[in-house]
Design goal:
- The complex is a heterodimer.
- Helices cover 54% and strands 15% of the residues of chain A.
- Chain A is built from 5 helices and 2 strands; from the N terminus they run αααββαα.
- Chain A has a two-stranded antiparallel sheet with strand order 1-2.
- Chain A is elongated and about 55 Å long.
- By secondary structure, chain B is an alpha+beta fold.
- Chain B is built from 28 helices and 24 strands.
- In chain B, strand 7 and strand 8 form a beta hairpin.
- In chain B, helix 3 crosses helix 4 and helix 18 packs antiparallel against helix 24.
- The longest helix of chain B has 37 residues.
- The radius of gyration of chain B is 36 Å and the shape is globular.
- Classes of the chains: A alpha+beta, B alpha+beta.
- Chains A and B meet through helix 2, helix 3 and strand 2 of A and helix 2 and helix 3 of B.
Chain lengths: 111, 893
């Protein structure tokens, strides 16, 4: 029996969380900066867009174009938001992780 | 801040590369934003660098992805056929994907191809440089070389010879206004150049005034020679090569008109040739070829090389016809000397080329072709194996309505991609091989190989490489394509999981392995023949001891040494000086030392044995040798006494004969005290018999007459210094010793005798090296091919083997079964290969004129060795077959 929620890779998880945190400002550059600053993950631009594309294809992210901006050479920003499916997937992942973590405090020491 | 734009080209390219992704504009926009920020923080230039790097990364990532994944999208759009270019792109993408799915096979194929095509390209590069276009002069095809021929001269050289001065002058007179213009003669000249530095022997040539015009060459400085300078009184003029001018005279433009010292005489420099002009044979110095009244009438002594230029509108055939007519008249006018002489007109490339070179190159090209054929068989096998693995996929596509032509086309596109990937590697390999060959040739020999300095990769070689690659693509691409398209849909889809094991398919694959093995054996035999000929030359009996001997040469030319007494004095002084250098254990001098690249022959007469045929009097090798000659060279004295210091000009004329000479003229063994003379010279009394030496391997032991150096002081002297240690260590001392004996007399070819010997076999070393390399490469490829095929066959038969094992067969039975299969292929290959090897060995023997010889034993041993090696290569797959677990094998489906 297949799980309803798609499996989230570590990078995917991080990206979803970053997009949630950024709220209205979640487009390419800030996402990449936050990943580096907040999670210590420096990833190539190509890798980021590929991941975003995949997340959108999976239905975990949704995107909408803003207004064309002169400082972008007349191009619009694409803002990302996490879909309800994405939120469910994040919650599911969190639950699974917490479940796995619990009871291991003695072995792992103070976290 | 003024608005600035990111690098336009990078942006454009990026736009292209991102065409496939829906985020194209977003990515470009994000980049643009960051770009502005970086430009503001640092500098626009830095931002440009950053942008380009970022763009390059993205292009790499998306460009690659679009090639590999976009196919599907396009496929949908153009499923109805579409534009031809689109279809081609589609095929290329598809083929790339297929090749990248099996990277190991792809790399193996590309490397195999690169090595095999590279070998062919390298050989073609040599053919191109040495045979087709050895010279790069303007209109080189119009430069011709008339030569004298005689049935008596060596067949190896095509019976051709140099021309006598009187014949040349007659040709020139009678050709005036005819088919050949600018007729010019060339004569060898080793000039002893004395100047600001130490004396030096410079390779030069005496040339007629028309020489430079015949070659269409102009001086960089000064002028060329004039016709009035072709008489001895006016001929002390020289033209310098660019290299000599810069090296010895500091590139001083005022050199023109100044005298320089050659052979202790003053010669006036009249011109300097431009860089790159060094015809013939890396010449560095030219002087007018002058005849005096006596030499102008000389017809018996052939010393000249003649060149000329075809008159406008005249053909080589017309020139030949006219030269024949002239020759016929000369034969009538001078029957004594010219009756048997013929004439031939070559192009410059034919005439200057070594007549032995074409057959060697033909052999190499044939060997390279063999290697390529083996490689093609290998690749065809690999592709067949892969086609078999993809049989299901192709079956499904056929069932879904894909056309057969489409599948064949894809297979061909794969082939073409493989070939295209290998061509640059092949050219790089060929370039490296040619560089290696070029660097291994000693300069003193390279100058005699016309075109050697042109070895390299040029447009012709690249074109030939592409043609060769295309032929290879056809050779190995057709089979798999045909096999792929031939299979029926039902066949392919039958799910027995044994794609590619149908009897027809297996037969093809086995035939390819048999072909590979049968092609390897001839190469192995040819390689072995060359290598063993070489080792034989190097290890066989020479008759003297060349180890630990330093040799050097001196040419006593010019008026200072016109008198024999002067030459005798020089020889004596030089021997004393050389004997005094550190580590010297004895010094010998002679006109010719064993194995050096010149010889001296004389017609002789034996007292009491008048020549039967006056036209064909006995000729022997002639040596004027110093007192310690035999001792220093380690030659045994078989009877009588050696030369002594007391054998002087005024004392009794004596001679020592070699064992072969004694045997030939005094078979009763009583040579001592008999009399012999050179041509019409003084009678000499034989005082000793010495051992034979091998001067030239082709001739073996030649009857040789030795006379005391003091009684016959030669113009050309060679010294042998036996040293206590490494002879190379004494080179500088030896040069100095000669300079002390006469500061104007340069020593040349100062090198260990071992080196002299090695240089004599340089062509054989090249033949052996190249043939050995080809044989090794071929063997490697064939073994790899056999291994791969056996592995594949075993893998395809896993189920059958499983059944056998389950039914009680032992692992040993399975090994035996697999090895039997391999042995059958090997045996068939070896049998065919033996026939091919015998044919090739015959061709080599006649083509290389006895340098190499074949024997049945070697062929047999190599055949057996090849068979055993092939079985070893198939043992691994056989072992693997025996370790099959029957349960797994049966469950595999």
């Amino acid at each position: 029996m297949k799980s309803v929620e798609p499996y989230l890779g570590e990078l995917e998880q991080l990206i979803l969380l970053v997009v949630l945190r950024l709220g209205d400002e979640a487009y390419g550059n800030p996402i990449r900066e936050q990943l580096a600053a907040g999670a210590g993950r420096r990833i190539g631009r190509g890798a980021l867009y590929t991941a975003l594309e995949r997340l959108e294809a999976k239905g975990l992210l949704r995107s909408a174009l803003g207004e064309p901006l002169p400082e972008r050479g007349g191009r619009a920003r694409r803002y990302f938001t996490v879909t309800p499916t994405g939120l469910r997937a994040l919650r599911q992942t969190r639950r699974v992780l917490l479940g796995l973590w619990s009871g291991l405090e003695s072995k792992l020491g103070a976290v | 801040m003024a608005a600035i734009d990111p690098p336009r080209l990078a942006e454009r390219l990026l736009e292209r590369a991102l065409a496939a992704t829906p985020y194209r504009d977003d990515i470009l926009g994000d980049l643009r934003e960051s770009y502005d920020a970086i430009a503001a923080d640092t500098s626009p230039a830095r931002a440009d660098v950053w942008y380009r790097r970022e763009a390059a990364r993205l292009i790499l990532r998306y460009g690659w992805r679009s090639v590999l994944t976009e196919t599907r999208g396009r496929d949908r759009r153009h499923s109805g056929g579409g534009h031809a270019m689109d279809r081609l792109f589609l095929d290329v993408r598809f083929a790339l994907r297929a090749l990248l799915k099996a990277p190991t096979t792809t790399v193996a194929i590309v490397l195999t191809l690169a090595l095999a095509i590279g070998a062919n390209a390298a050989v073609f590069g040599i053919v191109d440089a040495l045979l087709l276009r050895p010279y790069a002069m303007p209109d080189v095809d119009r430069i011709v070389m008339p030569v004298t021929t005689s049935p008596h001269w060596g067949a190896m050289a095509g019976h051709r010879e140099t021309v006598s001065p009187a014949d040349f002058l007659d040709w020139r007179r009678r050709l005036a206004g005819g088919t050949i213009e600018q007729l010019a003669a060339i004569e060898w000249w080793n000039a002893n150049l004395v100047g600001r530095d130490e004396a030096e022997r410079v390779p030069g040539f005496f040339v007629s005034a028309a020489f430079f015009d015949a070659l269409d060459a102009r001086p960089a400085l000064g002028r060329l020679f004039r016709e009035e300078e072709e008489i001895p009184a006016e001929s002390k003029r020289v033209i310098l090569s660019d290299g000599l001018w810069k090296r010895r005279f500091g590139g001083d433009p005022a050199i023109v008109g100044r005298p320089i010292l050659i052979d202790a005489e003053q010669w006036t420099v009249v011109g300097v040739m431009p860089a790159g002009f060094d015809f013939p044979m890396r010449s560095q110095l030219w002087a007018p070829l002058a005849f005096n009244d006596r030499t102008a009438r000389e017809r018996g002594f052939h010393s000249l090389t003649v060149i000329g230029r075809l008159a406008p509108g005249r053909s080589l055939d017309e020139a030949r016809a006219q030269m024949r007519a002239i020759n016929q008249r000369l034969a009538g006018e001078h029957p004594d000397t010219n009756r048997e002489l013929g004439v031939e007109v070559y192009t410059l490339s034919q005439g200057m080329g070594d007549p032995g070179v074409p057959s060697v190159l033909a052999l190499w090209q044939a060997a390279a072709m063999f290697v390529l054929l083996i490689a093609c068989a290998n690749i065809a096998n690999l592709l067949l194996a892969r086609a078999a693995e993809r049989e299901r996929e192709i079956g499904i596509r056929l069932a879904l309505g894909s056309s057969r032509s489409r599948i064949v086309r894809e297979s061909f596109v794969e082939t073409i991609l493989l070939v295209l990937a290998s061509v640059p590697l092949a050219i790089a390999a060929a370039w490296a091989e040619l560089r290696l060959m070029h660097s291994l040739m000693p300069a003193r020999i390279a100058r005699f190989v016309a075109g050697w300095d042109r070895l390299g990769i040029d447009a012709w070689t690249i074109a030939a490489t592409l043609a060769c690659a295309a032929a290879a693509a056809l050779a190995f691409g057709v089979l798999p394509a045909w096999q792929m398209a031939r299979r029926g849909v039902a066949d392919a889809l039958r799910s027995d999981g044994r794609g590619g094991t149908g009897p027809g398919r297996q037969r093809v694959r086995r035939a390819l392995v048999v072909a590979e093995i049968s092609l390897v054996l001839p190469l192995l035999v040819a390689g072995m023949m060359s290598v063993s000929a070489l080792t034989q030359f190097h290890t066989s009996w020479q008759g003297y001891d060349p180890t630990g001997v330093l040799t050097l040469r001196v040419a006593l030319t010019g008026p200072r040494y016109g008198d024999p007494e002067a030459r005798r004095r020089f020889a004596a002084t030089a021997i004393d000086r050389l004997a005094a250098i550190a580590g010297s254990r004895g010094v010998a001098a002679a006109n010719v030392l064993p194995a050096i690249d010149t010889n001296a022959r004389r017609i002789i007469e034996i007292a009491g044995q008048p020549a039967v045929d006056p036209q064909n009097r006995p000729r022997v090798d002639f040596r004027a040798a110093s007192a310690q000659y035999f001792e220093v060279l380690g030659m045994p004295l078989l009877a009588g006494r050696p030369f002594r210091d007391s054998d002087q000009a005024a004392s009794e004329p004596v001679a020592i004969v070699s064992a072969a000479m004694a045997q030939r003229f005094w078979p009763d063994g009583r040579a001592i005290d008999q009399r012999v003379r050179v041509a019409d010279g003084r009678w000499l009394r034989v005082v000793g018999i010495c051992g034979d030496v091998v001067h030239d391997w082709f001739e073996g032991r030649v009857p040789t007459l030795y006379v005391p150096l003091a009684q016959e002081p030669p113009e050309s002297l060679a010294f042998a210094v036996r040293t206590a240690g490494n002879p190379s260590a004494s080179v500088a001392d030896a040069r100095l010793a000669i300079a002390r004996a006469d500061p104007m007399q340069p020593a040349y070819d100062v090198m260990p005798m071992r080196q002299v010997l090695s240089d004599r076999t340089i062509s054989l070393q090249y033949i052996a090296g190249v043939m050995g390399a080809f044989a090794g490469l071929a063997l490697l490829l064939a073994l790899f091919g056999l291994y791969a095929v056996m592995t594949f066959l075993v893998a395809q038969r896993v189920r059958e083997i499983g059944v056998r094992l389950a039914l009680g067969a032992t692992g040993r039975d399975v090994v035996r079964m697999t090895l039997t299969q391999a042995a059958r292929l090997t045996l068939a290959g070896v049998a065919i290969g033996t026939l091919l090897a015998i044919a090739l060995a015959r061709a080599m023997e006649s083509g290389l004129l006895g340098i190499v010889s074949s024997d049945v034993r070697t062929t047999g041993i190599l055949a057996a060795a090849l068979g055993v090696t092939a079985l070893v290569a198939s043992y691994l797959p056989a072992r693997r077959a025996a370790q099959v677990n029957p349960i797994d094998a049966l469950r595999a489906e």
